[in-house]
């Protein structure tokens, strides 16, 4: 499946062989180090420094820092309640940070959130669109909400309908889930954002649709769009350029899939095991610290 | 792109979407356009406190011509139907069986006492329905007064020197209840359209998650509020037209104040009611809870506490204070006086100012409910 990324015209290799994944992951590790020329030229698209979010006494995100380069596919992973959704929401400006520095598309989110919004696209978990409007009406509406008009609006609506192979007159509410996801992606890309945020975009859709989805994602990234994605499918983490693993609000691992597997230790043969190992190591350490204290 | 043109563009896109959704949603259109019509007909025709053709038993214990003449006026009234009863016992049976609403009894000594200038006629009304009872009392009294005046005029023996008590009710001379119910209906309909319909709008977007999709766009809270207001102002204006036309031509209620002032005041109240619904919607974030709240917080008080049915001067102080807090009360006062009394400027300005203040306050707090995650 990963081969799709660079050999898009080749027929997909059927089995998700763990070894293939591993090799691919390794290759991405090197590809990542080979390409920062672009990143260095533009500087990071997202800068997160000491980000903290508290809800009352509860710390949902504890002092987190990372950068995301232009054109990168960055995955946020973590068990339920780990703080990945909170981090994600802060990144796309849905939730203000308690403290820390947050810069998206060169704009400080604390001071100029509205300006940042025009540069980001967002696909929510529910693929929330207006069910009683047609596909075209939904797209026209979101184009208007993003401030497009006239010829450019018509062009963009037409372009995304073609890009995602949509039926303009279909009623949005009765579409199958995979179709809705495509429509939601189309709506999020109307204004040609620099950064696309995807919140668990592949939950509930079939493997075929997922493969098509990742094909779209990688081609977007190649076109220079930065992708921030949350997922709980660990094999999908392999398709990311870099991933961050969070648990209990803390950033436990950050790097290419290969680096993260390495950090997990010898017994982690795939990402699934690596993920579990990292989370468990951290939880065990915390318990020990509590016992010691 | 200047921010003003961005505002304009986004507002157009948002409003167009709201209109499309409104037109697609048949149940909302039904509530918006047909329910008010049903309300008008129901309240206008069904809910009437008027007495018409009320049966009244007549007991003539004195069968003299003078006695018969005295009660003749009752038969002439369009509101009363005399039912002859042979004896007081029979009349009592009739009133117990609810066959008659009242009894008029001319006692045996009527002629005798009339000669002495002290004639008496007994009236018994069924107090179970106090409104009907007092109406009948008035009509019977009127009928007998007229008759006795005729008798006095003819005999020239009027001891009062032609001085008779002239009773008159101002504004609603005929005591027709539709005259004050129908203007009040305007209040009820505006409240229903406003609060109930819009109470679903923001909650629905919360439930379906579409608001989250909007939050990442450059759309601002004020734009959202305005776009949700616009289509329902049109629906409300149509309902207002229906109310005014049916008031004037169907129920023949006089419109003594300025029609323009009525329209402006109604639009003002409509916006207040719409904003109240939006505020409830944005606060509850749940369609079911929002619609229940909207009924409880707007429609019910507007019906019970605004002076629509019950005169606010007769209610306990606490209720008076509560009712004064309701925008509906101020609009009710305004509408009734505009319909029946005329344009009294100090009162129009005072109530319009109160409504406008409510509008600004609600627009602000509704924006706040949307701002939490926006800015």
TrEMBL record, chain B:
Pfam families: ABC2_membrane_3
Domain ABC transmembrane type-2 residue range list: 133-373
InterPro entries xrefs: ABC-2_transporter_component (IPR051449), ABC2_TM (IPR013525), ABC2_TM_bact-type (IPR047817), ABC_2_transport (IPR000412)
A GO CC term attached to the entry: ATP-binding cassette (ABC) transporter complex
Membrane topology: Multi-pass membrane protein
Subcellular location: Cell inner membrane; Cell membrane
Positions of transmembrane segments: 29-47, 179-203, 229-251, 257-281, 293-310, 344-365
Keywords of this entry: Cell membrane, Membrane, Transmembrane, Transmembrane helix, Transport
GO molecular function annotations of the record: ABC-type transporter activity
Keyword NADP part of the UniProt annotation: no
Family listed: Belongs to the ABC-2 integral membrane protein family.
PANTHER family: MEMBRANE COMPONENT OF ABC TRANSPORTER YHHJ-RELATED, MULTIDRUG ABC TRANSPORTER PERMEASE YBHS-RELATED
Protein name: Transport permease protein
Origin species: Hephaestia caeni
């Amino acid at each position: 499946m990963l081969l799709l990324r660079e050999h898009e015209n080749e027929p997909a290799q059927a089995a998700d062989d763990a070894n293939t994944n591993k090799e691919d992951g390794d290759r991405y590790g090197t590809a990542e180090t080979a390409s920062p020329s672009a990143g260095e030229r533009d500087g990071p698209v997202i800068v997160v420094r000491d980000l903290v979010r508290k809800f009352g006494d509860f710390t949902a995100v504890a002092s987190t820092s990372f950068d995301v380069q232009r054109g990168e596919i960055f995955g946020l992973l973590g068990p339920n309640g780990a703080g990945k959704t909170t981090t994600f929401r802060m990144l796309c400006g849905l939730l203000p940070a308690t403290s820390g520095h947050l810069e998206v598309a060169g704009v400080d989110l604390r001071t100029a959130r509205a300006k940042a919004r025009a540069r980001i696209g967002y696909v929510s978990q529910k693929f929330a669109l207006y069910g009683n409007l047609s596909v075209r009406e939904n797209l026209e509406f979101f184009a208007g909400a993003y401030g497009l008009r006239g010829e450019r609006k018509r062009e963009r609506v037409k372009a995304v309908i073609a890009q995602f192979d949509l039926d303009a007159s279909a009623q949005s509410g009765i579409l199958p889930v995979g179709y809705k996801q495509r429509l939601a992606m189309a709506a999020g890309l109307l204004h040609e954002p620099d950064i696309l945020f995807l919140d668990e975009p592949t939950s509930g859709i079939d493997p075929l649709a997922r493969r098509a989805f990742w094909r779209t994602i990688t081609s977007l990234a190649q076109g220079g769009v930065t992708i921030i994605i949350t997922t709980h499918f660990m094999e999908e983490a392999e398709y990311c350029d870099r991933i961050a693993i969070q648990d209990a609000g803390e950033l436990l691992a950050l790097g290419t899939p290969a680096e993260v597997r390495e950090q997990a230790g010898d017994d982690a043969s795939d990402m699934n095991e690596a993920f579990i190992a990292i989370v468990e190591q951290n939880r065990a350490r915390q318990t020990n610290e509590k016992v010691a204290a | 792109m200047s921010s003003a043109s961005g505002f304009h563009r986004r507002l157009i896109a948002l409003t167009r979407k709201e209109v499309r959704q409104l037109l697609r949603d048949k149940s909302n259109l039904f509530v918006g356009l047909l329910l008010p019509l049903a309300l008008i007909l129901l309240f206008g025709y069904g809910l009437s406190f008027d007495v018409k053709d009320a049966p009244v038993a007549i007991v003539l214990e004195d069968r003299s011509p003078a006695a018969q003449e005295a009660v003749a006026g009752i038969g002439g009234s369009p509101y009363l139907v005399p039912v002859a009863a042979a004896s007081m016992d029979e009349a009592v049976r009739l009133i117990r069986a609810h066959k008659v609403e009242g009894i008029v009894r001319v006692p045996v000594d009527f002629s005798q006492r009339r000669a002495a200038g002290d004639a008496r006629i007994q009236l018994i009304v069924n107090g179970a329905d106090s409104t009907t009872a007092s109406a009948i009392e008035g009509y019977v009294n009127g009928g007998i007064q007229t008759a006795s005046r005729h008798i006095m005029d003819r005999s020239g023996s009027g001891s009062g020197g032609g001085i008779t008590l002239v009773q008159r009710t101002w504004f609603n001379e005929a005591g027709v209840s539709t005259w004050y119910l129908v203007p009040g209906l305007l209040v009820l309909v505006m409240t229903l359209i406003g609060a109930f319909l819009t109470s679903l709008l923001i909650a629905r977007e919360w439930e379906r998650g579409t608001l989250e999709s909007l939050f990442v766009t450059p759309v601002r809270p004020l734009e959202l509020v305005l776009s949700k207001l616009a289509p329902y102002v049109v629906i409300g204006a149509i309902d207002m037209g229906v109310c005014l036309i049916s008031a004037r031509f169907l129920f023949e209620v006089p419109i003594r104040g300025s029609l323009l002032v009525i329209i402006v005041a109604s639009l003002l109240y409509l916006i207040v009611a719409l904003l109240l619904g939006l505020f409830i919607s944005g606060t509850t974030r749940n369609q079911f809870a929002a619609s229940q709240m909207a009924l409880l917080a707007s429609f019910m008080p507007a019906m019970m506490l605004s002076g629509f049915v019950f005169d606010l001067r007769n209610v306990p102080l606490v209720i008076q204070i509560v009712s004064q807090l309701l925008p509906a009360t101020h609009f009710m006062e305004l509408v009734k006086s505009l319909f029946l009394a005329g344009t009294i400027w100090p009162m129009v300005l005072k109530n319009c100012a109160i409504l406008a203040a409510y509008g600004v306050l609600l627009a602000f707090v509704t924006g706040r409910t949307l701002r939490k995650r926006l800015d």
